[in-house]
Write a structure and sequence with these properties.
It is built from 7 helices and no strands. By secondary structure, the chain is mainly α. The chain starts with a helix and ends with a helix. The relative contact order is 0.11.
Length: about 160
């Protein structure tokens, strides 16, 4: 296996995790990853040896996903409060979701994630702040729902 092939192999598990977290669905994520790899086989110049393979694979995956973003959101059971937490993540605008996951899950710096998504660092920070605020709101609502359920059980 060539060093470049080994870098691809090393990056795929984390790219799959990112894809699942971003789309909410393993099959959808795998389809987009496969499409990104097919594009790469047709346009191998997108990644040059001795460059940041992980960065460029994630960038290509994000480009593919952006084309199909309408498909990436899945319906969830709105009656179950724990699904609302997932809706909080999946309910984020796609760009905010990408940034949040690239920084928090995949450990890219804000600057690198912004570069990957072709944003200024300031824009990226604003999107991240909005995403974090929305997630705090959703988790607070989830906590309130759990507290309400507990108090109803104790009263019964």
């Amino acid at each position: 296996m060539t060093p470049l092939s080994q870098e691809f192999a090393d990056t795929l598990p984390s790219l799959r995790r990112y894809g699942r977290a971003l789309t909410g669905d393993r099959r959808t994520a795998d389809r987009y990853i496969l499409l990104a790899l097919e594009i790469l086989s047709e346009e191998p110049g997108r990644i040059r040896p001795r460059h940041d393979v992980k960065f460029h694979l994630y960038r290509l995956f994000n480009d593919v996903l952006s084309v199909f973003e309408a498909e990436s959101s899945k319906d969830v059971d709105r009656e179950d409060p724990y699904h609302r937490l997932r809706l909080g993540v999946l309910g984020l605008p796609l760009l905010s979701r990408k940034l949040l996951l690239l920084v928090m899950l995949e450990q890219f710096s804000v600057a690198r994630a912004a570069e990957m998504l072709e944003l200024s660092e300031r824009e990226a920070k604003n999107h991240l702040a909005d995403a974090r605020a929305q997630l705090r709101y959703v988790t607070a609502a989830l906590h309130d729902t759990d507290s309400l359920r507990t108090s109803h059980k104790q009263a019964a």
